Amino acid sequence: KFSEVTLRGRLNSKEFTLKRKKGASSGSLTFNYDGSDLTLQSLKDTQILIDEYFGTTLTRSIFHGQHALDGLLETTDAKFKEELSHLLSLDIWQQATTHARSKQREMMREVAKLDGMIALRMQDLEQAEKKLTTAKQYVDKRKIEVESARKAAHEKEQLLLSGADHDTSDIEGIILGVQEEMKEARSEIRTLEEEFSIITKEGNDEINILRSRLEEKTTSERKSAKDVQFWQRSHDSASIELKSAEKHFVTLRAEWNLGPISNNSSLITPKTCRSCGQKITSSSAQNHIRSSVEKQLEEATKRIAQAQESVSAASEALEKAVDRARIDAAEVRDCMELIRHKEKSHRDKTDGIRTKLKQAQDVQSKLSLDLAAYSKKAKQMVEADLIISKLRSDVERVEDVFNTSMEMYQNQCTEVE
Question: Helix H segments across 86-167?
């Protein structure tokens, strides 16, 4: 039993709703403003919020009959019925209600009992049928899995066994043999590499010595060539000087009318001076002129003799320089030929060792490939054995699951029956 009052209006041009409910032992107060619910946890807090929005607007309001507002609500059941009896007699209705409710309760109890038993049995039957269907499906599925597992395991096992040409012991023996051959090949390669290193060092040392000697011979050849050029220039200069001295001597004899060198004609003193053209009358002047001419001829003769000595010395030195240059050139050619011969011999030796070394390395590479292939095969055989064992284990596990499923299915069939 409760009473309710709702107040709607506008506050500051916005709609609000106040709703208050009052019961015998409790009440409520809601406040909606501008489409928002501002109701708080407690009635007191909501009233404080309303006072904040409205101020003193409702504090002095009164309602007609507000003092008797809770009168009917606060009455007891007997008082309430007494008040209602002034409007309508309630005895007949109370008796009919009591009888109907009693009969209804009795029938409802019976119906509920029967419905419960039926529902329970139907549920049991439905659950049993579901379990049976599930068990049948599970058994069929496991049966298919068993057959598939057996077939797959058999095919995989046959495939793995068909690819195995040797047993494990044979493969291990072959691997040991290949490893021994590889050890021998490595030893041979090591020996060839050491031999190659020694021959290369010896050959390089010998060739380097010959090249050093060639460098010395080449330097000597260049020096000899420079000497030849020097003495050639010296010989040419001496020859020019000799020709000049001889020409001067011939010219001097011609001036004094001495004739050719082979003519032993005596010197005739001129009667006139060759410079001024005056006659030479005094014997002292003639003697002076004669002495001067003889001195010039003597100097010219000495010059020719010195030039001849220079030409002779230059010719001799030039000949020696040319001989030395020929000898140095021949030694350079011989040294170069010897170096080419040594280099060819060294190449032949190293090429032979390289060929052997490459052959040994090819053998080692082939053995490495064979070892890798046999190792891979051995690994595959071990893996195949493991796979076969696992496949058989998986088949046994699936068969165990199938047998368990069959037992469950038979139990379900018994339960449904």
Answer: 91-162
Q: pLDDT tens across 284-336, in order?
A: 776 777 788 788 888 888 988 988 898 888 889 889 888 988 998 898 899 89
Strands annotated E in 208-335: none
Q: How many CB atoms lie within 10 A of CB 29?
A: 19
List own/partner pairs for 48-57 with CB under 8 A and 24 or more apart.
50/18, 53/11, 53/16, 54/11
pLDDT in tens, 337-349: 988 998 888 888 8
Q: Fill in the DSSP letter of residue 308.
A: H
Nearest to 356 by CA among 220, 235, 199: 199
Angle between helices 283-416 and 168-255 (to 10 degrees): 170
Residue 87: HSE in the Cβ half-sphere, 13 Å Cα cutoff = 4
- 3 state DSSP class of 266: coil
Share of the chain above pLDDT 90, in %: 4
Three-state SS at 160:
helix
Instruction: Render pLDDT for 129-186 as a digit per residue (tens, 0 to 9).
Output: 777 677 677 767 767 776 777 777 677 667 666 655 545 567 777 878 888 888 888 8
Q: Are 17 and 29 in contact (CB under 8 A)?
A: no
Closest CA to 402 of 145, 142, 134: 142
Which one-letter DSSP state was computed for residue 279? Answer: B
**In what helix (H) or strand (E) does residue 23 lie, and over which residues does it extend?**
strand 14-23
Half-sphere exposure (Cβ direction) of 40: Cα atoms closer than 13 Å: 9
Check: CB of residue 311 under 8 Å from CB of residue 244.
Answer: no
Place of tokens 């020719």: 304
pLDDT (0 to 100) of residue 17: 92
Amino acid identity at 216: E
Mean pLDDT score of the chain? 78
Q: From its phi and psi, is residue 6 left (phi > 0), alpha (psi between -120 and 50) or beta?
A: beta
Residue 26 phi/psi, 5-degree rounding, is -150, 165
Its pTM stands at 0.39
Residue 16: the pLDDT is 92
Q: Which residues pair with 16 in a beta bridge?
A: 9, 33
Please tell me the distance from the alpha carbon of residue 6 to that of residue 18, in angstroms, as a whole number.
6
